[in-house]
Amino acid sequence: MNAATPPSSPSAAPDGHHAEVVAVAAERRWAVVVGLIIAVIILLMIFAGLHWASMPPSRVETVDVKTLHLRGEFAEGNLGTAVDADGKVTVRLIAQQYSFEPQCIVVPAGVPVTFRGTSADAIHGFIVGTTNANTMLIPGFVATFTTTFPKAGEHLMPCHEYCGTGHEAMWARVEVLPQEEFMARARGAERMNCVSR
Ligand code: CUA
């Protein structure tokens, strides 16, 4: 055999068996690539599902600022605390430069209370004392959340979004009453606030 003759290389002398080996390797490589893409997509779906489940999206409920005071849910006669026939407690309030309406909110202790609020002008917000009741109030949108106040007492409820020159003087009060006392007062009252005791 001549030493100078190069050994037969794949490119020089492809045969049927070699072509099969190349094809199998390529198929395996692409199977891995496609498998990785599918795995990434499934992981994204799992992540998105868990994310949405753990971080409920803020609801988008709109309201017409121009007719806010005139009719509908936030007309003056509807503001304050209402107890529905099924016992659900709902507080409706409006924020405006530079006060809350009503100025004093009365709620029961130990019962879920749903707040529904909006703003008549600028962006406002409120937090009830040191509780987790905390939201922004944006004109044109209804902010709502449900919370339970564990014990009776009184809280300050300041506006916590800078809304203009009177911002620091904008606050209301929240009176948390023992459940029985609240329910006794709720009978016979359509809308409640601290003044109507
Ligand atoms: Cu309203 Cu700050």
TrEMBL record:
GO cellular component, one term: membrane
Lineage: Bacteria, Pseudomonadati, Pseudomonadota, Betaproteobacteria, Burkholderiales
Cytochrome oxidase subunit II copper A binding domain segment(s): 86-188
Protein name: Cytochrome C oxidase subunit II
Broad class of the protein's primary localization: periplasm
Record InterPro entries: CcO_II-like_C, Cupredoxin, NosZ/Cyto_c_oxidase_sub2
Transmembrane segments: 30-50
Alphabetical UniProt keywords: Copper, Membrane, Metal-binding, Transmembrane, Transmembrane helix
Cellular compartments annotated: Periplasm
Pfam families to which the protein is assigned, alphabetical: COX2
GO molecular function, one term: copper ion binding
Membrane as UniProt keyword: yes
